[in-house]
Specification:
Elements (H helix, E strand, L loop, with lengths): L6 E4 L5 E4 L6 E4 H8 L7 E4 L9 H4 L9 E4 L5 H5 L5 E6 L10 H8 L4 E5 L6 H14 L7 H17 L6 E7 L5 E4 L5 H8 L3 E2 L10 E4 L1 H6 L4 E5 L14 H9 L1 E5 L7 H17 L1
Parallel strand pairs: 3-4, 3-6, 4-5, 6-7, 8-10, 8-12, 12-13
Antiparallel strand pairs: 1-2, 8-9, 9-11
């Protein structure tokens, strides 16, 4: 008779998450699921956030086979019964503040935790990109999975390439943003995003947006964004961001589009070596081309 070994994981809310045996059926926030997929773990269900709709956001899904894994809903439309019907033995969420489960209404989260263990990984401003990556790796390791060792070398090479490109004589100005239509744009504050802080640590010349009330974003018009004289836009590719082709009614955007290089940026990308290597490598190529 097979002996069952209890499983436990200290999550990023400071809670010890326990189960009678190692979990095998995971329901996850889509970003967490995409990250765990890169570690060889296949979720049995996915959920989105209040910014998502009735279908999964491909940008957040990474390399997940989204047509094969049930999407259970998002935001206020996500009912705990939908999550529990997937029969998970573990739910994996992310947290930005170390307390709230991102993407789940508080009532839904409480009802869920009454029936199934819930583990969180912190992805907010208090964590470096490497720390977020390591926490997901620790969770995957506790579940008996991990990334191929060769990916560590790929990440080292991508980071080296990024540092070399960022240290060139031209020092291109890089501005991360999320378009909100032809009249306004959300400019990312680099200190609020682990991936942007990592770019700065590797020498990338990130543009700081104007001061204001927003913690993560500074919301301005396209004229003000143009006034920051960027050379490269890291442009949000999530489904809730406005697509570039819908911005051409604004003359400032049209002018920017003629000389600013656009590079896809996903603020909720998978937190894995594979995903980070790809992002660093793409930016290094763009920096060298400016």
């Amino acid at each position: 008779m097979e002996q069952r070994t209890p499983w436990e994981f200290s999550d990023d809310r400071g809670r010890l998450v326990v189960a009678g045996q190692r979990p095998e059926r995971l329901v996850t926030y889509i970003q967490a699921g995409a990250t765990l997929w890169d570690h060889g773990i296949r979720p049995v269900g996915l959920f989105g956030s209040q910014h998502d709709g009735t279908a999964p956001d491909p940008a957040k899904g990474g390399e997940l086979p989204l047509t094969e894994i049930p999407y259970l809903g998002a935001g206020a439309a996500l009912h705990p019964d939908a999550l529990l019907e997937a029969e998970p033995d573990l739910v994996v969420a992310v947290t930005y503040d170390g307390e709230q489960l991102y993407g789940l209404e508080q009532k839904t989260a409480l009802e869920l935790e009454a029936h199934v263990p819930v583990a969180t990984v912190a992805v907010g401003p208090g964590r470096s990109l490497a720390e977020v990556r390591e926490r997901f790796a620790a969770l995957a390791g506790s579940l008996g999975r991990g990334e191929p060792q060769g990916l560590a070398r790929e990440l080292d090479a991508a980071e080296d390439a990024l540092r070399q490109a960022a240290g060139g004589p031209s020092r291109p100005r890089v501005l991360a943003l999320s378009p909100a239509g032809p009249d306004r744009v959300h400019l990312a504050r680099p200190s609020s995003w682990p991936d942007l802080r990592a770019l700065a640590e590797h020498g990338v010349n990130l543009v700081e947006p104007p001061a204001g009330a927003g913690i993560n974003w500074s919301t301005v018009g396209w004229a003000e964004a143009a006034g920051l004289t960027p050379d490269i836009f890291l442009i949000d590719v999530r489904a809730n961001a406005t697509r570039p082709e819908a911005l051409r009614a604004d003359a400032h955007w049209r002018a920017l589009e003629t000389h600013v290089r656009l590079l896809p940026w996903n603020p909720e990308a998978p937190c894995s070596r594979r995903a980070h290597s790809r992002f660093f490598s793409q930016l290094a190529v763009t920096l060298r081309a400016v």
